[in-house]
Design a protein that fits this description.
By secondary structure, this protein is an alpha/beta fold. The protein has ten helices and 17 strands. It starts with 15 loop residues before the first strand and ends in an 11-residue tail after the last strand. Bound molecules: pyridoxal-5'-phosphate.
Length: about 375
């Protein structure tokens, strides 16, 4: 890609995802520091950024390894660390083939919840002369994936421990149903802790001690230590944060590292301004009937409507009277999907600006 000029945020072509690398480093240090203080490992989910630059910052801050969702992300991140978790069941020969092409030294641990995923994984690894780790996935309350009982988990772990081509390494769960402020999470966290403890005890009971118990999320980030049998957290959005983290009280406005830089293109309709960041830059993820994001420098101004290339700002609660051409930075509701809509980001590091590639982004057999 040729570097666009200029990169100065006052002049660069918009809309563009804008990243503050100093805040990224500060967030990485804080999360890694918390995890270390609580005796937990941090294995950030890189789906938030898909960037080797950001993943390197996380590893340098103390992350023990990385979590990925796709074989493509695994490929890209294997250049930085051999210690990877694929937190998504790899179904189908195309994905398995890609995983088997990872460099030999990569210690990939695969999360899955069914023997019908485990057996082809083991067979393909055997054929390729390699061994993948297996994390048996437990549904800790989200109701998305994961076995439904400790007994089912033991059955899956037992099969993984006998099949050539795989090695049972532990448990994975994701408490994605706990999306309320931390003080309201206590009962939910107790329930998750109980389910995970039952699973660990059941495995211990058959001599299959889980060396890894992988969980964690950004909404529950600072209370991760309440799940007493967990060994590592995969919190990912916390590297940039977003409106959700802010409104839950997990982060402050000064922690937001990613915004969408946009330009006011119309003020024709009274009480509104229209910017050039629409659903193709912010994503259409709604938050509690309160729009799609807000202005980082004027939090009272919300994005209340989106077309593909138009973002509609509600000026009714603000004294601000924007002019066409003015620049704004929008905090999106959900950072991961907004980043994934960008081809690359504009990154600021102090006084310097650069184009930041999102190498793990993209899907399809032609990618990579
Ligand atoms: C399986 C899994 N692990 C970890 C994460 C990271 O969670 P968060 O974005 O809340 O940090 C996610 C997020 O969707 C996930 O699906």
């Amino acid at each position: 890609m040729s570097t666009p000029t200029p990169l100065d945020p006052r002049e660069v072509e918009t809309p563009v995802g804008f990243l503050d690398l100093e805040r990224v480093r500060a967030n990485a240090q804080r999360v890694a520091g918390y995890a270390a203080a609580k005796g937990l490992g941090w294995r950030p989910h890189i789906k938030t950024h898909k960037s080797t630059v950001v993943a390197r910052i996380q590893l340098e801050a103390g992350a023990r390894g990385l979590t990925v969702a796709t074989p493509r992300e695994a490929e890209v991140m294997s250049s930085l660390t051999p210690d990877l978790v694929l937190a998504y069941p790899p179904v189908g020969p195309a994905k398995l083939e890609r995983l088997n092409r990872l460099p030999e030294h990569v210690d990939l641990k695969v999360a899955l919840d069914d023997a019908s995923v485990l057996r082809p994984l083991a067979a393909s690894a055997r054929a390729a002369g390699r061994t993948f780790g297996v994390l048996a996935e437990l549904d800790a309350g989200l109701g998305r994936v994961g076995v439904q009982s400790a007994e089912a988990l033991v059955r899956l772990a037992s099969e993984a421990s006998t099949l050539a081509g795989v090695r049972f390494r532990g448990i994975l769960f994701y408490p994605g149903h706990l999306r309320m402020p931390p003080e309201e999470q206590v009962a939910g966290l107790e329930d998750v802790a109980r389910r995970v403890r039952e699973a660990v005890d059941a495995l211990d009971g058959v001599g299959l001690h889980p060396e890894i118990v992988s969980g964690g999320s950004t909404p529950t980030l600072w209370q991760s230590h309440l799940i007493d049998t967990m060994t590592e957290i995969r919190a990912g959005s916390c590297i940039f944060f977003d409106r959700e983290g802010l409104e839950l009280g997990v982060a402050d406005l000064g922690d937001i590292a990613y915004t969408v830089l946009a330009t006011v293109v119309s003020t024709a309709v009274p009480g509104r301004a229209v910017v050039d960041a629409g659903s193709k830059a912010l994503s259409k993820e709604e938050r509690g009937g309160r729009g799609y994001g807000f202005l980082a420098d004027r939090p009272e101004v919300r994005v209340v409507g989106l077309s593909e290339e138009h973002g509609i700002l509600d000026l009714s609660g603000s004294a601000w009277s924007p002019a066409v051409g003015e620049r704004v930075r929008i905090v999106p509701n959900h950072v991961c999907v907004s980043v994934n809509l960008q081809d690359a980001l504009l990154a600021r590091d102090g006084e310097h600006y650069a184009v930041l590639a999102l190498e793990g982004r993209g899907r399809g057999p032609w990618i990579g």
